[in-house]
What we know:
- This protein has helices at 53-65, 100-120, 148-159, 169-176, 184-191, 193-196, and strands spanning 3-7, 25-29, 44-48, 72-76, 92-95, 122-125, 128-131, 136-139, 142-143, 181-182, 202-203.
- By secondary structure, the chain is of the alpha/beta class.
- The protein has 2 domains: 3-120, Rossmann fold (3-Layer(aba) Sandwich), CATH 3.40.50; 122-203, Arc Repressor Mutant, subunit A, CATH 1.10.10.
Amino acid sequence: MAQLLILSPAADTDALPALGLLGHRVRVIPAEPASLVNAPTSDVVLVDARQDLASAKSLCKILRTTGLGVPLVLVLTEGGLTAVSADWGVDEVILTTAGPAEVDARIRLVIDRLAQQSTDSKIQASGVTIDEASYSAKVHGRPLDLTFKEFELLRFLATHPTPARQARRARLAHRHGAQRRLPIQRLRGRAGARAGRRARWVRTP
Length: 205
């Protein structure tokens, strides 16, 4: 059972009648940017585009720009399908006339797809989690404050599990410049002694 948030000008569940036959928890709020400030948490956001395609498109773009972290689904009539394109930024479209089985399957699949994509963009090694999509890293759940070069170096070392001293010098030098030493100790300090106790300086030519 998923928590669904519907953004609708009508502020009702008529956008997708089949939801009334399913067990999902549904909240409906006005389809306005101001409503998003205190919007409840959800597993999926559905935008009602049945009546106003232009406004729905603008709202979808705003949601993407603000970093929406859950799937974005567009609900529309069959006639509106011709207007939808990739630049809307939606993850799925559902016709307002879709039956319960189809609606449930599409919601379940779009949640699973996003979860899989999130997993694929993360690298985990020795308690360190690197999220390539957001250029962020955590050690045992604690966020690390890294510069861009430090992040790239950490990602390189995490994806090349051979000991640091055996890393190919030419590749490291090419990625991180002709520095005499690469800042492994800085990474160690930021990550903490527990996570970085095996870190060492990596010498380059």
